[in-house]
Amino acid sequence: MRGLKILALLSALSAGFSLRAVAADPADALLAKMTLEQKVGQLAQAFYFGGKALESEIRSGQLGSVATLGNPETINRLQRIAVEESPQHIPLLFGLDVIHGYRTIFPVPLALAASWDPEMVTTVQAAAAAEARAAGVQWTFAPMVDIARDPRWGRMVEGAGEDPYLGAAMAAAQVRGFQGGAQVQPGHVLASVKHFAGYGAPTGGRDYEEVNLSPAELWNVYLPPFKAAVGAGAAAVMSAYMDLNGVPATGNRWLLTDVLRKTWHFDGFVISDADAVRNLTKHGFASDPDDAAIRALTAGLDMEMSIGKPITPNLVDSVRKGRVSQKLIDKAARRILQAKFELGLFKNPFPDETHAAEVLQSPQHRDLARAAAERSAVLLRNESSILPLDRTRLRSIAVIGPYADSQRDTLGPWAFDFNLEETRTIAAAVRDQAGASIRVEVAPGVQRPMRRFPSPFLALDRTPKGKPWTPEQVATEFAKADALARASDVVVLVLGEGWDMSGEAASVDTLALAGDQQRLLEAMLATGKPVVLVLLSGRPLEITAAAEHAAAILEAWFPGTQGGTAVANLLFGDAVPGGKLPFTWPRTVGQVPLFYAHTASHEPHNAAKRYWNEDGSPLYPFGYGLSYTTFSFSEPHIEHNNVRLGTAVTVSLDVTNTGTRAGDEVVQLYIHQRSGRASRPVRELKGFRRLTLAPAESRQVTFTLTPADLQYWSTADSAWVQDPATFDVWIGGDSNATAHAQFDVHR
């Protein structure tokens, strides 16, 4: 018998199986010992807000995971209850929204996408993961990879913008950073890609609203970033809140099983967004909480995230009544247990509090935050090369605006465990870096705009809230800013959005500057002094007046802990801007949704004249961004201009720095298929490369267009297809690139 077992083992190995595949799986072994109640408990996650709440549920094994803002001491206390007192001594899985940093706050994800630098993004999220894991958090509810083509939607700030190709690159980069690879590495966390799927296209740009997308839009635009994240090894997927084509995503079997499991072969676990299972009843989809839990599980959900009491325990009674199979419970529980084993929680469930303190204070992470903010900023305008500011010629600078000296607004949304004292504001950094010979004075000018409706996340924020100004203060502060501007050589005007004006539950019906900011902008422009507008925002804003009259415009996003230092470095030329827009910047809200990868439709020559009262073209195109130097592009060279279907195409060109200082350019490749089974977008991004070039330096850049790059989802065929066709290729510094070539694909 022993010989037969050895032969069986060798046979398995020769067939490509590992020793692990034929050994007893620890998750299966543990599952065999568990009661139905304990298995169902692994499928429940609840929020912990302090106190003694949840302790009884943890002690009885009714929770498999906790979402918490707690510190290492709190996490250790709750984990000790689970490991030492629960029936099977199963450790908890602690999760948190580590979106763009834990203690060190990095630029928001939209800003990171503007870097067009996936390697840097991977490094940033690895640092965020290291801090979170050291503090006891093993799982982040990130990355958010929803495509957003309507900037009214507040959660645009959490994603990578409008383009599926750029979005897919950023999705994979973030997964690699959070997890350390396809398998979670020591010092890293589980990544949970969200929100599956289509969440970024709500009706009217209103958060949580229904989404209606054609199959072509889903497969060609909204699903590629999710597929890339799954391909990079994302351990978990979070379902979305809304109805997708009439079926709630959390109960959508086509999404969670047919696409995710069967088509993409995803083998991790699926969690709902907060209270999304319970809300299946509010959708009018499930008849009651019991039905909601059953329908989510049978659709393909494994774990329920609940702010209040989970309804997942209702599944115990449903199994006993024969309404749902226990096999589904076992499958879901096994996936959760497997993740805990792979994280090493059964061997080492407790964070080291001393080690946590060291990691959370890492100076290397602060340096990385500064560099990331510098590489993410986008220079939109620079008339007469006013930037960088010349320290030798300036005597005075006025730093004005409600966000100029606001630490909390510099960090942006989705930041929880930050150290506000170490956050560098733009005003503080400009004052420090201007030099002793330059007078720097600061004034808000107008009060920080207040939301009309409070954010549900305000209660989680520890920073003090200001009181409304009196009419006297309004007049006094405005006059002070005006006088200060007139007495200074240059005005650095910091406007945009507050941290609570972008993100979840922060959709808007206008892109205009909130509060009295437009009045302040116009007053600053009227002084006749050069105005350098610095924007803090998580979306494009209506800035047509500034685009015509400001001396310079720098989109700094929400730049994070070292954001002020980064902006000051950019203003004074100690760093050179090289970021590019990850979305198309509209002139007015009436243009949205506005995106570059549209089809030609009828009379394409009149595309910019669709509105009788306004130019239909964008204020700034997708991929746009200036530098303190200039670049030129040679004509693209295609190795073979006539290829067969299924053959790769190689395109190359030379890029030259034609300016007088070193700088970065993002070389972008776009294609257009001239004919086929469907109308294809006028341009589609299919390659990019960020380069650093010295003055007069040239470098050859080569792109390979794979057969997958030339495919698209055909609604008529319900499949991915590639057509024989003529393809245009453009390469340049934005989506209006002019360096052109073409090639033919034939059968």
Task: Describe the protein in words.
- By secondary structure, this protein is of the alpha/beta class.
- Among the domains are: 367-453 and 462-587, 3-Layer(aba) Sandwich (Rossmann fold), CATH 3.40.50.1700; 631-746, Sandwich (Immunoglobulin-like), CATH 2.60.40.
- The chain contains 23 helices and 27 strands.
- Strands 9-6-5-4-3-2-1-10 form an eight-stranded parallel beta sheet.
- Helix 8 packs parallel to helix 9 (164-179) and helix 9 (164-179) runs parallel beside helix 11.
- The longest helix is centred in the first third of the chain and has 17 residues, at 118-134.
- Mean pLDDT is 94; it is low at 1-23.
Descriptive key words:
747 residues, six-stranded mixed sheet, eight-stranded parallel sheet, disordered N terminus, Immunoglobulin-like, alpha/beta, 18% strand, Rossmann fold, 27 strands
Q: Tell me the fraction of residues in β-strands, as a range.
A: 15-25%
The CATH superfamily label of the domain at 367-453 and 462-587 reads Glycoside hydrolase family 3 C-terminal domain
Question: Under the CATH scheme, which class of the domain at 367-453 and 462-587?
Answer: Alpha Beta
* SS element count, helices: 23
Report, as a whole number of angstroms, the end-to-end distance.
57 Å
Given the helix and strand composition, which structural class is it? alpha/beta
Helix content: 25-40%
Mean pLDDT: 94
CATH architecture of the domain at 367-453 and 462-587: 3-Layer(aba) Sandwich
* Structure summary, number of beta strands: 27
Report the sheet with the most strands, covering strand number, pairing sense and barrel closure: 8 strands, parallel
Radius of gyration from the alpha-carbon trace, in angstroms: 27 Å
Shape, principal axes of CA atoms: globular
Trace the largest sheet across and list its strands. Answer: 9-6-5-4-3-2-1-10
User: What is the CATH T-level topology of the domain at 367-453 and 462-587?
Assistant: Rossmann fold
The poorly predicted ranges are 1-23
